[in-house]
Amino acid sequence: MAKGFCRNRLPVMIYFHNISGMTAQLLLFLLLVNVSHAYYMADKPDIGTLTGDVQNWAMLIQNYILQLASEGIKRDFTQTLFDAANYTLEVKDGIELVTRMKEDLTDFFTSKKRAAQKIAKQVVKIYDTNLKEGWNSGYTALPKISRDVYRDSDIPSLLPDDLTFSPYFKQNVSSKWSTVKISDEVPRNSSAVIDTVVFTSKLEDVLKQNSKEDHYLRWQYFGSTVGLARLYPGREWNTNFAGFYNDYDPRTRPWYIAATSGPKDVVIILDCSMSMKGEKFSISQAVAKTVIDTLTKQDYVNVICARASHWNEVGKWHFFTTRVLSCQEEQLVQATISHRKDMIEKIYKLEPGGTSELEKGFELAFQLLESKTRTGCQSIIVFVTDGKDTDGENVRCGPGYYTRSGYVPGPICKYNWTKVWDVADQQNRRMTPQARIFSYLTVDEGEQFPGHLSCHHRGSLKKLNHGENLISQMGNYFDFLSRNARNSKGLWTAPYLDDWGLGLMVTYAMPCISHVDNSTIGVVGIDATLEDLENLLSSQQWGTVYSFLINKHGQTIFHPRLKPSTALVEDPIFIPIEQLEQKGGIPKEFTEVVAAMKAGLTGHKDVFISRTYYYAGLTGSEYSFAFSLSEADKVFRRAQQPQDLSSYGKSYFNLLVEYDSEVARRELPGVFEYLKVFYNEKKYPSLRVSYLHSSIFLAPKCHCDPNAYFYDDDLAQKTVDAHKYINGADADDGCDKGAKYNTGIRAYALITQPVELLWRVREFDGVDDVKWTYVGMRSGVFRTYPAHRSRRTYDPSKRSWFLTSASSPLKTTISTAYMDAAGVGKIITISQALFEGMIPRKPNQCAHLTPPFPSGCPCRGSSDCISGYCYVSVAPGANKEKTRCATERIEAVTSLDILYDRFHMITMRTMEASDLQKSCGSKYNCPDGEYGCQTRCYLFDGSANLITDPDFITANPLDDRKYKGVTMGKKEGEVMKDLIYKHRFFRRTESVDFQGSCGLSPYRPKVTLEGIPKNPEEQDDYYKNKGPIPKFSNEYGCITDVVKYVVNESALGISGMIMGNVSGPCMSGFYYVTALPKTNLFLLVIENWRHYKMSTFYNFNCKIAQSIVNSGAYRIINGTCDHTDSTTETLDEQGKCPLLLDIDIPCMFQTGCQHHTPWLLFICLLLFSHILLVDS
């Protein structure tokens, strides 16, 4: 750049020397412009030289993809199979659907309640009988108890001897015995523990009977007030990474607390002043955490750190203030997992400092207890302090002053506790309900002030000398909660993650109350998994129908747009259903649907987008469900199996090895030998394949009872049954007549059978690089070649390749690179959509219509059709020889998987420049004459995800973050920025994911696949073959801001190409962007691409430039602020608070006298005053 400028400077100066006046000034100005322009354009040439090449490359790559799809997938042939199929019309009645599903779901929930009631009744009966008779077990130690009575989940020698793996419980369990789990904080040989172990053993019979009566029943258990649980079926307890059994105290679990304490409003006040420094503050933090951890979603909570500013001994001002820790500072927040985590995280970031200022803390506490978001059932303040009224020599309540003798510090702060007493008295007097104050004194002896406060407000004081076993030390608080709310009725908990490995679940929890002494004996729990509910709802879906489940607050429990319950890493945050079904309040009619569902009503509502919501409340639970149907779904076309099966070959189930089982050899002789199953081929390591045929897999939704399918481990019989069904000629009766599979499933297997011959005999360049070829149908039927096993949970209609192709049915779609399930390397998927068979039309049915036309009507081009696709079809009907419109519904997606390296090599080789110098990947001299520029080429999709990138070739296949989901913004931030803000080619979208995942530590790629399930067989069997030590997870639940970019293809304009210069901290160059119009891809070419390296070891500016235009999910540090409470009425206003017994509890504290109760306090103070008068 400098050399070029010096060469041009002399002639310009000579010319300038021979002129004068205004002309000279003008030329000087032009010279300066040219100089600055010369520096600028040295790195940014005005015009690129590859315009024609880029357009040509895009067409060549598109033609390669289309040819690969045509020769490899055989989409047109498969479309003719669907067009030639017979279809029947089924009129769907949404009201009938909802009525039937309401009955099924009501039975589901009612059976759990019935089981809990039977156990609770037996608990109370045994306990009260023992109480009347003055019974005790007679044992003095647990080891002396008979094994028929005592089997322990924590002691290997005392485990049941019949532990066997149960796919329904996903672990080894005992069907003959229950086991007990005793909390680590409970003395194991106390008489209360021993007696409880013995008397709860008498529950065995009712537990087993419940299990026989309800095959959907999961865990059944009883949690005792002494801190042990009896569980059926019996199991060995989970271990930690060190191999020790995890602790478990039923009294701290959500189901127990919800049933015994009832809904409550809790404010925790922490004395954060300087005097709390050290162990005292650590105990204070642990107390707050313990209280928060034992709250449930039915409770409301907030935390206050109380302190004030002060001067120090040399007059320096130190600023502190009393503040509410939750981001929602003016109200209580629901004790969801996110709010609990948020507050605990902030509590442990606190450092003690400042002077005592508890008056403000209590003012805020009572304001929070009267906020609009609360239960209104019971109010509790938990106050943690050291009780001291001074904070040491360094904490002064005045700035000090100077005298002739020197500086005099301000007075030492001495707190006036009477202010707190006055505030609490005044505020609590007008509260409904009035707050109870539980004070916890940390280490010191200052009991008088917090003791008087608690006792006067019907709470209690407890001194804590250490932060261990706080559940036991804080027994006064937890005992009060269990005894004050008299709730003999059961309740359904909010969904939570099961500690015992069954994923997200709800529990029907029922307290057991003695009829003799009215004491709480414990709580019975019966579990129901969300997975069961999802399967029940999903089993009744077709076409575009979907369902969702909400609770009485309108919070979404299940919805297809949320993560499945099995994919969550922590208790979820439940999103208001409006956020999923309404955008900007549209459709407005949905507001009426939500109101009706919250009220538990049954009905239906049409909305303007041609959909109808059918909904119903579930009797005996707090849930409501709904189905959303489009107009097209109300008349459903179902494919029928061909009447003449003579031209159709056999289909084979995907569990190839099971054809070698004893039952298959007996009932299907010779099949295994015929299939010629190969194992561990070079192309398919660790897999069993057959090259003679494709295989059929039936997704869970194909089955009448998905749960029975999931947990059926008799794979041999499953294979025989499926083989006979998909090849049978008998009537396909469906679920209503007791069959295993939904009506029409066999038809989809038969219709697609002929295409396997074409897949088997095809020959074209690159066929050896094709891993799999398959067709996935919306029904859940999946045919793939060569034949091989699929995962038990696999559903082709939910895979990204299916959804992407179905959303762009007129285009051939290409996926991003990803790791093959068998672990052989990076692959991509090329997909094409298949339309439902064309509707036969009579000539007069289309004669009076105007375009766009429906399916089966003649068309001149795709723009004439509603579906956007016009073609010659073999489907019956008039105008068969003419082009006709396709149906609007996608029936299936057919695809092939090809090795990424092969795809990349061919596309890169295609992009050869006409000058033979600037081909993709070539290096050459930059415009300034320096060597090192190159032409960089990328394919990307409509979401800015890179499909090809030169760096993907060298990326370790095990490090999928280097090639899967890599966006343009991450690799070419300057170009991305230009396309977003200058050309409006990308449109930014942003949403909040309340069920996101974040990493505990920086991501590290896998080094090996050793020990990791690689193929479908290992993945299916992992949960029963895994060892006792839990799998390490680097993830935790978090709230994330999800940023995406979507292509605005119209920005390409008439020319179909965007060009521009970029120069930034990462790179410089001239770029071109154009579409591959018949695919979902776009081509980005950067000419004269030059990478910039900073003099420092890390290019921070480049990192920033890339991050601001990168897609992804970013953790919201205070994400709880984005989750607002939609509750408008308190439980008290709804009349749903449990009856409170308003019990009095013992409260004593140490003063200058002895231990005193509140009513003696006045006498004590009078005596103290009398002593002072006598002394004076």
TrEMBL record:
The keyword Signal applies. The keyword Transferase does not apply. One of its GO terms (molecular function) is voltage-gated calcium channel activity. PROSITE patterns: VWFA. It is a single-pass type I membrane protein. SUPFAM superfamilies: vWA-like. Gene3D superfamilies: PAS domain (3.30.450.20), von Willebrand factor, type A domain (3.40.50.410). Keywords: Calcium, Calcium channel, Calcium transport, Glycoprotein, Ion channel, Ion transport, Membrane, Signal, Transmembrane, Transmembrane helix, Transport, Voltage-gated channel. InterPro entries: Ca_channel_alpha-2/delta, VWA_N, VWF_A, vWFA_dom_sf. It comes from the Eukaryota. Signal peptide: none annotated. GO terms for cellular component: voltage-gated calcium channel complex. Residues 265-396 form the VWFA domain. It is found in: Membrane. This is VWFA domain-containing protein. The lineage of its organism: Eukaryota, Metazoa, Spiralia, Lophotrochozoa, Annelida.
